Amino acid sequence: MVLRLLADPVRWQLACELARGDHRVRELVAATGHPQNLVSYHLRQLRDGGLVTARRSSFDARDTYYSLDLDGCARALAQGAASLHPGLGQLPGLTIRPAERGQAASGVRKRHRVLFVCTGNSARSPVAAALLRHRAGARMLAMSAGIRPKPVHPDAVATLRERYRIDISSHRPTHVETVAGQRFDYVISLCDKAREACPEFAGRPGRIHWSLPDPAAGEGGLAGPPAFERMAANLDTRIRFLLPAIDAVTPDVLTGSGGGAGRGRVR
């Protein structure tokens, strides 16, 4: 049961770290202060319980990135609550909405600036930016860039048009260096190569990493339109869960950076 899995303090700590972004084992060891063998053991328990997934790094195949399965966690938590009482799995209307709470407290909602970065700025990052704009509306300014820009991929255009009625056919690739001087609240890297090659950004924004396979390269066992559909679905899930987190907290809390030196490049 998910509640029993997360009741363990080490597993809860690991899940909280992965809720902020995808990480390698050594980063989780550093963040939690636990020895590597203990971290690996509990990651295996979380994977077996369907709460965490893993994939080989596209930058260094010797590395593995771990991700929190957000939809899987939501389903498992709802099932766990329903096992206590059937009505507990059906109470979304009673959930406190952080966005509304923050707006009521301040009277003004900040317009957050978010930059998505991948290798080519041809699929993952423009799709992510388009989905964030679609989900968030005017309260988010979403941009995208790449470390080696190339034209938008036609399958990315087709996937967004067919599944979300979003048109990105006019997207023009942007090199990340050309926007590094702009101020962003968050910079989200979408591939392992982009994470390693990202420059420092003005204002030292919160940094988040999502390790997604390249659909154009056939990474992750799919190729062609199915790979792009999986990419878009993955990004849409992450963005749906990202929005209330951004509305509720500051960049330091969301990324676990603790301000100051921790808000630069994430390793």
Key descriptive features of the protein:
267 residues; alpha/beta; disordered C terminus; Rossmann fold; Arc Repressor Mutant, subunit A; 2 domains; four-stranded parallel β-sheet
What is this structure's SSE topology?
Layout: H1 2-7, H2 9-19, H3 25-32, H4 36-48, E1 52-56, E2 64-68, H5 70-84, H6 98-106, E3 112-118, H7 124-136, E4 140-146, H8 154-164, E5 186-189, H9 192-197, E6 206-209, H10 225-248, H11 251-255
Q: Please, could you describe this protein's structure?
A:
The chain has 267 residues and is α/β, with parallel strands linked by helices. The chain folds into two domains: 2-93, Winged helix-like DNA-binding domain superfamily/Winged helix DNA-binding domain (Arc Repressor Mutant, subunit A, Orthogonal Bundle), CATH 1.10.10.10; 109-263, Response regulator (Rossmann fold), CATH 3.40.50.2300. Helix content is 45%, strand content 12%. The chain has eleven helices and six strands. The strands form two sheets. A four-stranded parallel β-sheet has the order 4-3-5-6.
Just give the CATH class of the largest domain.
Alpha Beta
H/E order of the elements?
A: HHHHEEHHEHEHEHEHH
Range of helix content? 40-55%
The domain count comes to 2
Kindly report how far apart the N and C termini lie.
Answer: 33 Å
Summary, kept brief:
It contains eleven helices and six strands.
